[in-house]
UniProtKB/TrEMBL annotation:
Keywords: Membrane, Transmembrane, Transmembrane helix
Name assigned to this protein: Major facilitator superfamily (MFS) profile domain-containing protein
Species of origin: Symbiodinium natans
Taxonomic lineage of the native organism: Eukaryota, Sar, Alveolata, Dinophyceae, Suessiales
Alphabetized Gene3D superfamilies for the sequence: MFS general substrate transporter like domains (1.20.1250.20)
GO MF terms, alphabetically ordered: transmembrane transporter activity
Length: 450
């Protein structure tokens, strides 16, 4: 009798074990605290570092772009195209990276991309020696294609839980704005250092030194990535196990038209925010140099100060705003306040330069702070309104629209003057507010969001 009982118990345990093996993968991919999950702090810091480097690489050449282009026989429009080449070519790079993620680990793609960015930076620095203006476009395009701008968003979507994602994205938005502050400041310091050491030749001068500097910085970052960055687990690349980077087409979910419209509204918000952030730098430097008669270094320091104030404010206010209001109310209120901030940017033909600079500073800082917060809310909504098998595609499209905004802002604001700047911003904010308000009820998190 005891033998029969023991045998029955063993069979029961065996059945339970087999059942446990059947449910283990799903439990392993969805732990109880999944919504609070966080990546290793070292990897997160490296991600912030990369985002700042990417933004610096976009804007560090802005103060010297016109001089570099004119030196090679081009004009302001060519300088705007040169600045826009990086974000525009990054669109193709983002799509290429998404395809590579189906069979190549994310960390490997990131490392190779940074090495090609080093190559592009060196090519940019050598354009003066080559005396060929199209080298500038080729170099900036190479840096854009291998910019890997969509990888941070994909990494965050797969490693940060829904409850912590808005907070992390506020920090990311602040890093992007701070990168816009560090870029012009570095450009000014590099230009002053060239004047101090009295070096001016075809290989190294104030126009080429940003390229050499970014090549060295990206090379150091690559070494840190190899040593310290923790890649996504291999199970994340396997379609049959939970959260994946590329799910099979047979399991892909479909979005309703309302969800698609909400995603498009968020994409438009990201497009506008990126265009304004980049455009403000170009517009402010042009106004400071041509209207106020400032030097390149002084104009760069002025832009760096505006961006620094905006970035620090984003960093401090973001976490508070995340607790005070949700993503959707914050997005709507932010666009309404952005419309009112445009009042300070209209051209009132003031006789006092001091008053002119004061109003310009207040308006630009207000717009940048609000748009920085709106960028974080829009990215958070994008990652939550779709199921897990679509988050990779949505975050790639978000990066694409941000790149389009950077490119469009570079071109438009390179030829924009004081009379048209504020009306353009007001129109963009009004359209964004209308789109977000119309789709607000479809911006709720999806039940299958990762």
């Amino acid at each position: 009798m005891a033998t029969v009982t023991c045998t029955a118990e063993m069979e029961t345990c065996s059945d339970l074990g087999a059942h446990a093996k059947d449910i283990a993968p799903s439990e392993a991919t969805e732990p109880l605290d999944d919504k609070e999950r966080m990546p290793p702090m070292t990897s997160l810091v490296l991600l912030y570092y990369f985002l700042m480097l990417g933004t610096i690489n976009v804007v560090i050449t802005i103060p010297t772009a016109n001089d570099y282009a004119e030196r090679l026989g081009a004009g302001r429009l060519f300088a705007g195209l040169m600045l826009a080449a990086l974000p525009i070519l990054s669109i193709a790079g983002n799509l290429f990276n998404q395809w590579l993620l189906t069979f190549v680990p994310l960390k490997h793609i990131w490392i190779v991309s940074t090495l090609f960015t080093v190559l592009g930076s060196v090519l940019y620095a050598l354009a003066g020696l080559m005396r060929f203006r199209w080298t500038l476009l080729i170099a900036r395009g190479l840096m854009g294609f291998f910019g890997a701008f969509n990888l941070p968003g994909i990494y965050i979507a797969h490693t940060v839980g829904i409850h912590r994602r808005s907070e992390i994205l506020f920090y990311i938005s602040a890093c992007l704005t701070l990168g816009c502050a560090v870029g012009p400041a570095l450009a000014a310091m590099l230009e002053e250092s060239m004047k101090f050491i009295k070096v001016h030749n075809l290989v190294l001068d104030s126009d080429t030194v940003p390229g050499w500097f970014m090549a060295a910085v990206y090379l150091l970052f690559t070494a840190k990535m190899v040593l310290c960055f923790k890649d996504l687990p291999r199970s994340a690349h396997t379609p049959s196990q939970g959260r994946t980077l590329q799910s099979p087409s047979s399991r892909k979910s479909r979005l309703s038209l309302g969800r698609v419209a909400a995603a498009c509204a968020c994409f438009w918000q990201l497009f506008v925010t990126s265009g304004i952030t980049t455009g403000v730098e170009i517009f402010t430097i042009n106004v400071a140099r041509q209207t106020l008669g400032w030097s390149t270094a002084r104009a760069a320091w002025f832009v760096a100060l505006i961006m620094l104030i905006s970035g620090v404010t984003n960093l401090s206010v973001g976490k508070v705003m995340n607790r005070v209001c949700g993503d959707v109310p914050g997005l709507l209120i932010g666009q309404l306040l952005a419309c009112f901030s445009c009042v300070f940017l209209f051209n009132f033909d003031l006789a006092s330069p001091t008053l002119h600079v004061t109003l310009l500073t207040i308006g630009l800082v207000s717009v940048l702070v609000i748009q920085g917060l709106a960028r974080a809310w829009a990215m958070s909504i994008c990652s939550k309104i779709v199921p897990a098998d679509m988050v990779n595609s949505v975050m790639t499209h978000a990066a694409i629209f941000m790149s389009l905004g950077r490119g469009g802002g570079s071109i438009v604001c390179s030829v924009l003057d004081l009379d048209f700047f504020a009306p353009l911003l007001l129109g963009l904010f009004a359209v964004t507010l209308a789109m977000c308000f119309a789709t607000r009820k479809y911006m709720k998190p999806d039940l299958k969001a990762c």
